[in-house]
Amino acid sequence: MLKINKIIMTLFFASFCLYAQTGDKKIHIEILDQNKDGVLNPYEVLDSFLLLEKENKGKIKLSDFPALTQSIKKELNSEYTELIEAFDKNNDKKLTADEMSGGMESFFPKLDLDKDGFATLEEITSLDFSKWFLLNKNEINDIVNEAFQQFDNPEFIDLEKNEDAASSFSNWDLDNNKKIYKEEALKAFSYQEMPVTFEVKGKTAIMNGVITSSFPAKILRLVFEHPEVTTIEMNIVPGSIDDVANLRASLYVRKFGLNTKLHSKSSIASGGTDFFLAGVKRIVAKGAEIGVHSWGDTNQAATDFPKDDPVHQKYLEYYRALGIPEEFYWFTLESAPVEGSHIMTEEEIKKYKIKTNY
Q: How far, in Å, are 5, 175, 224, 252 from residue 1 at the CA level?
């Protein structure tokens, strides 16, 4: 069955590319490149077409495809225009580093792709936002090296002998032995700053990292290429930088009947918690940390909108689809501010049906 599925997807992808090259009408193929890396893979294309099919009420004709993708591009441009307007003080429809105040100025170099001192709509729409919000390997190495330099570059940081280190770096202690080696620190920090990865071990896929726009394609790859997997075990998943993609991927998990699991050292939060709820069976071991907080954008928090505002609907519909009480959504918004986090108590986990292993 897996071989047949892969053949079908390969033929579909090849026929699509042929049509895109020879069709009379312009097709905006860039819409299908979800992670903006200049490469299309079959799972990105499949996810995009499933989304287009849903938005077009169940069917897509080739003749409709240019108009559909143009509509999506227009919607994305509208969102990015709002981002520019949030900081554009002189209304010239482009940003400078000086305009991006409130801690956002550090992101400007990643927006200014041509390094001319301005970030335009064209530059922002071509950007993979995971590269904006997340650190790269060199930046991670620099931070870890700086941390070790505070302790005169020891072979390891001893958490038992240093209270400051214990309060600052305990989440780097992956094996919980109170000693942090540099390789261990690099791995732990990467989980918090790099896109999701899966490591398949038998019937379990071990998940680490931040959920990005390419996440739905990764879920589809997992279920198609590893049909033996029945459970996604989440290790360190601090959140999401694309809630829409996260909710879409989560519904794939529920549709394919996968379970989710947290072991005693698991740490998930925000969008990671939303994803965990997609499991048909949801196992939570004692000691696992489940964090929640309010969501927000560049200048507003969820609590700034009235409860009947449409911005809440996609989350409420998601929880309803999973059988999670709607009250859980309002609880997350009130539990902690956008920049904070509340670790759920056992009582709260039970009240909101977070786990099924009772």
A: 6, 39, 9, 19
Q: What is the DSSP string of 315-338?
A: HHHHHHHHT--THHHHHHHHHS-T
Amino acid identity, residue 97? A
State the burial class of residue 196 (Cβ atoms within 10 Å of its Cβ: 0-12, 13-18, 19+).
buried
The pLDDT tens digits of the residues spanning 44-102 come to: 888 888 887 777 777 777 677 777 777 777 777 787 888 788 888 899 999 998 888 66
Question: What percent of the chain clears pLDDT 90, i.e. is strictly above it?
Answer: 46
311, 320, 306: which is closest to 353 by C-alpha? Answer: 320
| Beta-carbon count within 10 A of 242 CB | 21
Residue of 206, 221, 212 whose CA lies nearest to 37? 212
Distance, in Å, from the CA atom of 95 to the CA atom of 111, rounded to the nearest integer, reads 9
68 and 60 Cβ atoms separated by less than 8 Å: yes
For residues 169, 173, 179, 183, the Cα torsion angle rounded to the nearest 10 degrees is -100
196: its two tokens: 């999701």
pLDDT at 12: 52
- Both tokens of 77, joined, read 């441009």
H helix runs in the chain, sequence order: 2-22, 42-55, 65-87, 108-111, 121-125, 129-133, 137-149, 163-169, 182-193, 215-225, 243-255, 271-276, 313-322, 327-335, 346-351
pTM of this structure? 0.83
CA 156 to mean position of chain CA atoms:
31
Q: How far is CA 256 from CA 121, 224, 227, in A?
A: 38, 10, 10
Q: Is the pLDDT of residue 162 over 90?
A: no
Residue 4 binned pLDDT confidence (cut-offs 50, 70, 90): very low
pLDDT per position as a tens digit, 315-329: 999 999 999 999 999
How many whole angstroms separate alpha carbon 189 and alpha carbon 216?
Answer: 23
